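Late entry, 2-phosphoglycolic acid complex.
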Amino acid sequence: MAPRTMVAGNWKMNLGPAEAADFARDLTLPPSIRSEVALFPPALSLAALREELGEGPEVALGVQNVHWETSGAYTGELSVAMAAEAGATFVLVGHSERRHIFGEDDDDASRKVEAVLRGGLTPVLCVGETLEERKRGELSGVILRQLEAVLASGEVEDRITTEARLVVAYEPVWAIGTGETATPADASEAHRILRERLVSRLGDTVGQGVPILYGGSVKPDNAGDLLSAPDVNGVLVGGASLDPTSFARIVAQGG
Ligand code: PGA
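Prediction complete; structure with ligand written out below:
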């Protein structure tokens, strides 16, 4: 069965606690939305955002990164339990900015997904090719390698085939923050490749149930076409999620 549509906003290093509270006050979501809505503020803004949004289940929160250890001498890092205590239910893992600016690799992503699942939260695993990789015809090789690095963990496979959830986000690196959007057909092509692998590795029921989001310059004007593209189960929005009106317009298009 196709998963429920998900619309998620990744604020990156934007909107501190006071601005996050303002965002929540100004956010008016359409009544009776069927989509799952999630926001990924900077971790320091999470509590303020949660408080201002209220306790309703309407908007779930997540953090943009965690460390795989549970505690210890890891200056600057956050644990999964801390994120959960602050109100997060989702964690972004392997975002292209983590991979390309901070040098995270597939092993890091795998350890983080394991830790997130172990801590009872839902990982949103980001995969995507660079422009050079795409030009060399490596789209499927790259995104399947990034997905497989995580599915290869027996612990991950066990957990997501029994109790836990996984979300995958396809975010072509050349479309992130560039204004360059993949066409709905580009998104569908990559999502189909990922879906086939999820089904072959996890079986039909679990594999079909993993939401695959598209991310990369999603805006109110292109969200509708992307959300209705075959095999696209939602969107992960960066820049356009910083403004409550534009985020709400995108959520409205998720149905
Ligand atoms: P963008 O970012 O919408 O600003 O391109 C997307 C993302 O990195 O998640």
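The longest helix spans residues 184-202. Will revisit in the morning.
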